Amino acid sequence: MNLLIEAASRSLEKAYNPYSGLSVGCALKTSSGKIYDGVNIENSVFGLTMCAERVAVFKAVSEGNVDIEQIALVASTGKPVYPCGACRQVLFEFNPNTKIHLSNGKTLVLMEILPFAFSRDALS
């Protein structure tokens, strides 16, 4: 967990946040042990802003790593931040049991904070 929190903290300086001023860093670990980081990337069209979690997930998936085991989140405010609803759904696609490590030392399981996720079962 500490390794992921440290990786997420290091990524904060790369955040692009000219509108909110809030930097968010994420680090995720796949079952292969590889770590991917991500930062929030804002846009003047706010709906096009991308969260740190999705940036990290998309980096991992684009390299063929889809078995996400855990993530860590850190914000420039020093307060713990939780994944937004969109990020929770994206994480669910790859592992509903993803562990989420917060900067205050708390660890959650994705299914605890997204109990009624939309899944591929709904498509059949």
TrEMBL record:
GO terms for cellular component: cytosol. It catalyses: cytidine + H2O + H(+) = uridine + NH4(+). GO terms for biological process: nucleobase-containing small molecule metabolic process; pyrimidine-containing compound metabolic process. Its cofactor is Zn(2+). The active site is at E53. Its EC number is 3.5.4.5. The keyword Hydrolase applies. Residues 1-121 form the CMP/dCMP-type deaminase domain. Zn(2+) binds at C51, C84, C87. One of its GO terms (molecular function) is cytidine deaminase activity. Keywords: Hydrolase, Metal-binding, Zinc. This enzyme scavenges exogenous and endogenous cytidine and 2'-deoxycytidine for UMP synthesis. Belongs to the cytidine and deoxycytidylate deaminase family. This is cytidine deaminase. The lineage of its organism: Archaea, Nitrososphaerota, Nitrososphaeria, Nitrososphaerales, Nitrososphaeraceae.
